[in-house]
């Protein structure tokens, strides 16, 4: 069996990624591969469809990108910028000018930025406390990074199901 046919985590360690952060990186890369594969031919006109009132494919794509950006910001010990706050406010608000390609490219870019940050994260800081949100709810660097990976895979699953249902129901 070719390594390319294996899930990312079975392909071995990723260069330059600290050992304790390999699982986070594997999960993000797996999500990226699946998202790109399943949305390769997804039509723009179905982006905002909400079968049975569930979140749209567009929302999930925006949310995946936004959460990665926000959680990795907190992991660096930084507060959100005004631009990040504005992005959060627009997640899920229908905008017919947005395309599948734009949203997928934004997610891909965010995954690449996250991997750069993972490669540059010193394992000795993983248990350091970081504040989340305006209330500065305490978490740790590793807790935030793990949550980013877990959250990404959860929303990817929802996105994939929604995309299949929308294609069946609307098309």
From TrEMBL:
Q: Pfam families annotated for this entry? A: DinB_2 (PF12867)
- Top-rank taxon, per record: Bacteria
Residues forming the DinB-like domain are 28-159
Transmembrane stretches in the record are none
User: Which InterPro entries did the record assign?
Assistant: DinB-like, DinB/YfiT-like
Q: What is this protein called?
A: DinB-like domain-containing protein
Which organism does this sequence originate in? Answer: Emticicia aquatica
């Amino acid at each position: 069996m070719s390594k390319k046919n294996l899930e990312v985590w079975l392909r071995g360690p990723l260069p330059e990624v600290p050992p304790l952060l390999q699982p986070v990186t594997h999960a993000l890369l797996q999500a990226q591969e699946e998202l790109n594969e399943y949305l390769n031919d997804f039509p723009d006109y179905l982006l905002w469809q909400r079968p049975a009132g569930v979140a749209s494919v567009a929302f999930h794509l925006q949310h995946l990108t936004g959460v990665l950006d926000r959680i990795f910001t907190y992991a660096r010990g930084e507060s959100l910028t005004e631009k990040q706050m504005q992005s959060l406010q627009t997640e899920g608000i229908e905008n017919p000018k947005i395309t599948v390609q734009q949203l997928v490219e934004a997610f891909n870019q965010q995954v690449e930025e996250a991997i750069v940050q993972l490669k540059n994260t010193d394992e000795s800081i993983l248990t350091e406390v970081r504040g989340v949100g305006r209330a500065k709810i305490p978490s740790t660097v590793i807790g935030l990074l793990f949550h980013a990976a877990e959250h990404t895979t959860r929303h990817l699953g929802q996105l994939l199901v929604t995309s299949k249902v929308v294609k069946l129901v609307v098309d």
